[in-house]
């Protein structure tokens, strides 16, 4: 059966049979202790990847935070890596690990996220978790503290600035060389999109310059008097600059290539973090379902796209990786109606008939989770059907285009379902924590 064939979602009797399997195999998700099964099932994996069906849903952030905290506390995970810029997230990392020159408060660190969509990390749900993480780290020796890092590739100019700043401290001559190399980008006014657009007219790139700086930094590492974390941060920023230049360059050639460059960079960063924290370290990833769920179980593969979940499974083996997705039937979400537009609280309509979300709602069990390996081999849930994906740009009136044809048990090792969800709480909308609802089930 082709993944693109939507008629299979509503074959006679299919929904009833799928609903029966949901009722017989899912586990309730009402209180934090309900996560015990997931912690025990997947806590020994090298990587646990936690997805979300939108970047603007409170329940996804809160339950993801709770599960992450359990894994950190009980299963000795070493770091959290998220779908965010390296530079901004490293300032958060400085705060939660108590490193030098860190922001005064976690709110200061989150409000420094200026790249749209700012609400993705500058929100109360993220702040609550990061405040807990900083407190947890205070109890640990400095070398054992849990880090928080960004996997993304967008911060071209910010990362170049960070490389120069590092070299100013350890090698002023090299800093001057870096400024000269990065001067190639000056005509674009620190606007990566402008750099990409310019290549349509004058295809002279800055590729050689960013590759050269990464190579030089790696060649000189033995000569620098620096902390291990400071060098790792500088090297990662040089890598981001190199890969970001490639990403923006490929944007003018084709969308698929730039998507794959981005997800390959995320995996390269994840593997560098695991190596940096030691051979026995384990990592947790937060990103959208479209990055977390194995692309081969969707129509992404037919479009030439791969993703983080697929690559990590290929590199590590399925037994060492847990992919956990999320979804919901209806509710509200923070999104925008066009790229760069003002955020809005939007209504998420009931799920499309025949989709996974619709099947879970019809089962009537409320919030729950499914460990996909517990499904029978002939379950109708193993056949392709739609699975909703809401982006930062969202048009509820055109819902049909938001469903990714999916084989759920192949895409995820577990799936967390929420019957009705609520919108995220951005810091710039909800200025006072006392004015927003209690963020249960996060609080300890």
UniProtKB/TrEMBL annotation:
Q: Name one Pfam family in it.
A: Erythro_esteras
One GO BP annotation here? Answer: response to antibiotic
InterPro entries, per this entry? Emycin_Estase, Hydrolase/PRTase-associated, UCP036794_erythomycin
CDD domains attached here?
A: Ere-like (cd14728)
Q: What is this protein called?
A: Erythromycin esterase family protein
């Amino acid at each position: 059966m082709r993944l693109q064939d939507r008629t299979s979602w509503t074959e006679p009797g299919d929904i009833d049979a799928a609903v029966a399997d949901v009722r017989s195999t899912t586990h309730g998700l009402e209180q934090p202790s309900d996560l015990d099964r997931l912690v025990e099932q997947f806590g020994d994996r090298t990587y646990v990847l936690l997805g979300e069906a939108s970047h603007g849903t409170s329940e996804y952030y809160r339950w993801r935070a709770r599960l992450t905290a359990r894994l950190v506390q009980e299963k000795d995970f070493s770091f959290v890596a998220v779908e965010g810029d390296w530079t901004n997230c490293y300032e958060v990392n400085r705060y939660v690990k108590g490193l030098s020159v860190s922001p005064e408060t976690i709110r200061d660190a989150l409000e420094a996220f200026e790249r749209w969509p700012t609400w993705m990390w500058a929100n109360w749900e993220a702040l609550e978790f990061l405040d807990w993480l900083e407190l947890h780290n205070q109890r640990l020796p400095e070398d054992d503290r849990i880090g928080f890092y960004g996997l993304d590739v967008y911060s071209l100019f910010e990362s170049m600035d960070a490389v120069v700043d590092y070299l100013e401290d350890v090698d002023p001559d090299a800093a001057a060389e870096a400024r000269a190399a990065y001067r190639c980008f000056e005509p674009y006014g620190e606007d990566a999109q402008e750099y990409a657009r310019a290549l349509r007219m004058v295809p002279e790139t800055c590729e050689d310059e960013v590759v050269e700086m990464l190579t030089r930094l790696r060649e000189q590492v033995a000569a620098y008097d620096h902390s291990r974390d400071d060098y790792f941060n500088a090297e990662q920023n040089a890598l981001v600059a190199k890969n970001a230049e490639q990403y923006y360059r490929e944007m003018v050639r084709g969308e698929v290539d730039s998507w794959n460059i981005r997800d390959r960079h995320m995996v390269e960063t994840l593997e560098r973090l695991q190596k940096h924290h030691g051979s026995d370290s384990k990592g947790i990833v937060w990103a959208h379902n479209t990055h977390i769920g194995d692309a081969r179980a969707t129509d992404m593969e037919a479009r030439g796209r791969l993703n983080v979940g697929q690559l990590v499974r290929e590199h590590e083996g399925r037994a060492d990786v847990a992919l956990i997705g999320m979804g919901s039937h209806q509710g509200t979400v923070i999104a925008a109606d066009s790229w760069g537009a003002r955020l809005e609280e939007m209504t998420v309509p009931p799920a499309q008939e025949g989709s996974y979300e619709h099947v879970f709602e019809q089962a009537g069990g409320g919030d729950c989770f499914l460990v996909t390996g517990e499904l029978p081999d002939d379950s109708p849930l193993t056949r392709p059907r739609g699975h909703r994906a809401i982006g930062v740009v969202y048009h509820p009136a055109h819902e049909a285009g938001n469903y990714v044809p999916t084989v759920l048990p192949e895409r995820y090792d577990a799936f967390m379902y929420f019957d009705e969800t609520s919108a995220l709480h951005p810091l710039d909308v909800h200025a006072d924590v006392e004015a927003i609802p209690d963020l249960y089930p996060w609080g300890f």
